[in-house]
Amino acid sequence: MQLKYNFSKGFSMKYVPRLIPVVLFLVLNAACARDRNSFRHPEADFSSITRVAVIPFENYTNSQYAGDIVTMIYMSELLMNVDVEVVEPGEVARALGADGTRAGKLSQSEIKSIGSALKADTCIFGTVQEYGTVRVRNENYPVVSVNVRWVDAQTGTIIFMASVSEEGSPQIPVIDVGEEQLYSVLARRACRKLVNMVR
After folding, report:
1. Where is 21: in which H helix or E strand?
2. Cβ neighbours for 126, distance < 8 A, ≥ 6 positions apart
3. What b/e string do you get for 162-194 counting C-beta neighbours within 10 Å, with b at 16 or more?
4. What percent of the residues of the chain are helix, what percent strand, and what percent coil, each to the nearest 5?
5. Which of 35, 76, 109, 124 is the most buried (most CB within 10 A)?
6. Please, are residues 174 and 139 in contact by the beta-carbon 8 Å criterion?
7. Beta-carbon contacts of residue 191 (< 8 Å; ≥ 6 apart)
8. For 98-111, how does the pLDDT look when each residue is reduced to its tens digit (9 = 90+)?
9. Do residues 21 and 89 touch, judged by C-beta distance below 8 A?
């Protein structure tokens, strides 16, 4: 499907904002979870978790700000859907800077140290694997893929790990919707599914 207008016949740009929600609906109505895998530690008591620290997600894509965007979306989904306190990002950044460590590359002892400094029960790590288009059978699909893992801050043990990929329809070009708007919606869908897995 392509949206074409003859601007010479007086089409007004004022109608473009009205079309964006419609196009988004058409794209995302065909979207689906391409992949979902999860692990829950059989002895983990998620009901006892009251404070979590979200470590900035690593970005393995070509989109410069994908890691930052998905980190913030995941945090907002946590706050809206799970009864936990989320450590303020500035506190997390200071704790990581004080230890001189790289987010996502922490050892068990470093995780324990960070968790203790932030008074967090759990440290949440994530990676953005895809944030763009993939070509399948001569068509380009918008895709966002996110992995997360929850690590107990007292033991350094992984208590939850999951991955989700959200895929949009190839029928409407990304440029017709707005690239950042489309990928943000797909990222929110992926993060919401990841958060719901621990509820």
Report:
1. helix 16-29
2. 54, 55, 57, 58, 70, 71, 74, 146, 147, 148, 149
3. bbbbbbbbbebebebbeeeebbebbbbbbbbbb
4. 40, 30, 30
5. 124
6. no
7. 70, 73, 74, 77, 146
8. 655 567 788 999 99
9. no
